[in-house]
Recover the amino acids of this structure.
């Protein structure tokens, strides 16, 4: 019998083996596929951009002698106590429930060691997380799971979550095996039953209500704390403008590659726009309101390296935040656990198991024995090391472009490798003269107008 794709066998592009397997799975189980992680399909991303390092026409900074600053202040618009971060990388909101208690503690430890913030998530604030996070952002979510006004006051900033990049327009999920006694008590839910979070806030229905909500939060916290608004990237230009008009101090923009703990696969892969396409839309929206750099922009969704950080900043972000990469840095899906992952029907490096709650590294689980395998001190140190590397890499690129602060990076320092990336990021194609693509686009527009007139 012929095996695999030997000569003579012709696999269909439309119905490849993965598509066939998914149709068969759906037919067997009668329920959509639920998984964690972010989009696995290839979309234009930061890898499609390159920096134009200094040469004759530009002057680089000396790596070991000249300073390239990395500090960032979030929430300068209204808050009396904005967040002062030493590095432009923060930890994104990830729920206690999706993650174990020790994992949340490690996120706080790692972020604090390098002078940055971490964020709570759907499900509320844990005491360990508060204790080990110098700067902690408190999420206010549509689900209101774990919502506690005292915790709100204990936080250093508030993040109103309107949406996530992995599922703009949808709510999260937490499957029953992760609803332990503690998670159930914090969320006011029955133990062991699958939970689907709301996809919109119950007490507001649009931008006007959002404005009232933000005012309310400022009053509760005496105008001390910055109020962030997190949006999933879709109609980013309008969403950003409306969030700014509603009074946001900071916009958190999460692109379609953004991670999630558990969501329908169809949602992760087919809703939202790529991070690369979303940033220029948000920057344009802020610039038009005269608010770029007054309302800070934090970008997330597929940030893995210092190059990604530097490119996001060059496109106009003030900071980035990371989810999946932070968990990988702490040891999630480590190859030494491959056998355990295979027993779950996955394999190390595939991230197909987060929703299942049996993570052998003890990170994305509520099982007490598994969670005990994870050492929050070691995890925190690894995360701090990784955050240092991201920052050093971003500084290296900024210096090569002659910048004394990573915020001085600009679109002018970038070129694109593909036409798609060029159009989305609004930077020239490598090797092409500035403006040539615009000229071509203008000519096409004129031709089209002639044809239709
Ligand atoms: C395990 C996990 C849990 C998450 N939980 C939440 C959450 O509770 N609230 C939220 O707004 N976003 C949540 N997210 C999304 C992150 O805040 C962030 O938007 C996303 O992870 C950024 O993309 P990245 O993972 O590619 O860095 C979660 C992501 C992961 C990976």
């Amino acid at each position: 019998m012929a095996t695999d794709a030997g000569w003579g066998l012709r696999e269909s592009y439309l119905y490849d083996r993965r598509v066939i397997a998914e149709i068969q799975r759906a037919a067997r189980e009668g329920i959509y596929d639920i998984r964690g992680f972010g989009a696995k399909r290839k979309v234009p991303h930061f890898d499609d951009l390159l920096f134009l390092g200094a040469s004759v026409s530009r002057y680089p900074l000396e790596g070991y002698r000249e300073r390239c600053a990395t500090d960032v202040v979030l929430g300068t618009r209204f808050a009396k106590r904005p967040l002062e971060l030493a590095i432009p990388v923060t930890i994104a909101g990830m729920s206690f429930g999706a993650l174990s208690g020790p994992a949340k503690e490690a996120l706080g430890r790692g972020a604090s060691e390098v002078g940055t913030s971490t964020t709570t998530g759907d499900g509320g604030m844990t005491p360990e997380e508060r204790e080990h996070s110098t700067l902690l952002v408190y999420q206010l979510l549509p689900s209101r799971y774990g919502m506690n006004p005292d915790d709100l006051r204990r936080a250093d900033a508030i993040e109103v979550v309107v949406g996530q990049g992995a599922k703009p327009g949808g709510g999260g999920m937490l499957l029953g095996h992760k609803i332990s006694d503690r998670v159930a008590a914090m969320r006011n839910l029955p133990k062991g039953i699958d939970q689907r979070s709301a996809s919109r806030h119950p007490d507001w229905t649009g931008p006007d209500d959002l404005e009232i909500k933000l005012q309310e939060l400022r009053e509760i916290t005496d105008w001390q704390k910055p109020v962030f608004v997190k949006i999933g990237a879709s109609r980013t230009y309008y969403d950003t403008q409306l969030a700014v008009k509603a009074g946001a101090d900071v916009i958190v923009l999460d692109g379609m590659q953004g991670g999630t703990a558990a969501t329908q696969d169809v949602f992760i892969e087919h809703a939202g726009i790529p991070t690369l396409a979303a940033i220029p839309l948000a920057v344009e929206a802020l610039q038009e309101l005269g608010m770029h750099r007054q309302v800070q922009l934090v970008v997330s969704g597929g940030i893995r390296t210092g190059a990604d950080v530097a490119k996001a900043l060059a496109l106009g972000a003030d900071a980035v935040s990371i989810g999946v990469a932070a968990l990988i840095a702490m040891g999630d899906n480590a190859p030494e656990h491959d056998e355990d992952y295979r027993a779950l029907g996955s394999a190390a490096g595939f991230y197909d198991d987060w929703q299942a709650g049996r993570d052998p590294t003890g990170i994305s689980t509520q099982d007490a024995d598994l969670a005990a395998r994870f050492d929050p001190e070691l995890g925190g140190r690894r995360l701090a090391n990784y955050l240092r590397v991201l920052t050093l890499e971003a500084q290296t690129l900024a210096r090569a472009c002659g910048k004394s602060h990573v915020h001085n990076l600009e679109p002018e320092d970038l070129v694109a490798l593909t036409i798609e990336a060029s159009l989305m990021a609004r930077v020239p194609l490598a090797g092409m003269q500035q403006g040539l693509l615009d000229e071509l686009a203008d000519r096409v527009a004129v031709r089209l107008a002639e044809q239709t007139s």
Remarks:
- Residues 34 and 265 are 6 Å apart (CA to CA).
- The domain at 46-425 is CATH 3.20.20.70 (TIM Barrel).
- The chain has a mean pLDDT of 93.
- The two ends are 61 Å apart (CA to CA).
